Amino acid sequence: MPPSCGLADDADMSYAVLWSEQEGPAHAGKLELSAGSLVLDGVNGSGRIRCDLPIGDIMALRIGRSRSERLGGRPALVLQLTRDRVVRLATLAGIGALHEVVDHISGRDHSRRGVAGTRPLASR
């Protein structure tokens, strides 16, 4: 019997990533795109770490390409959150995957159900 495969929108999308909060150390793990948040799940020096970033808390974003903004030598998505919090994340799949994350955050991800309720950043 062949393996069962679900539709892409049956589960949250995920990417292998590196991320850093503020100017702290980089963590390795995965990024899951859910309807209302970005969920970072990985490890740090002392064990598992999980970080839930509600899309509504993202005030601004940009692709950081300078040496100081990169993570592991990769361009990073720089997220400016409420309360002056900054999170940088770099996908191991390359810059194209970062653009998919930006589309998801801005509500332009029309390929999946459950994202229609997100609003473009300009309307927040």
Helix content: under 10%
Top CATH class: Mainly Beta
Spatial order of the strands in the main sheet? 4-3-2-1-7-6-5
Number of helices: 1
Order of helices and strands: EEEEEEEH
Total count of strands: 7
DSSP strand (E) fraction? 35-45%
Secondary structural class:
mainly beta
Q: Categorize the overall geometry.
A: globular
**What distance lies between the first and last C-alpha atoms, to the nearest angstrom?**
49 Å
CATH architecture: Roll
Describe this structure in words.
Helices cover 10% and strands 41% of the residues. By secondary structure, the protein is mainly beta. Residues 1-10 and 110-124 have low confidence and may be disordered. The relative contact order is 0.20. Strand 6 and strand 7 form a beta hairpin. It has a single domain (12-111), classed as PH-domain like, CATH 2.30.29.30. The radius of gyration is 15 Å and the shape is globular. It is built from one helix and seven strands; from the N terminus they run βββββββα.
Entry summary:
10% of the residues lie in helices and 41% in strands. The protein is mainly β. The protein has a 7-stranded antiparallel sheet with strand order 4-3-2-1-7-6-5, with helices on one face.
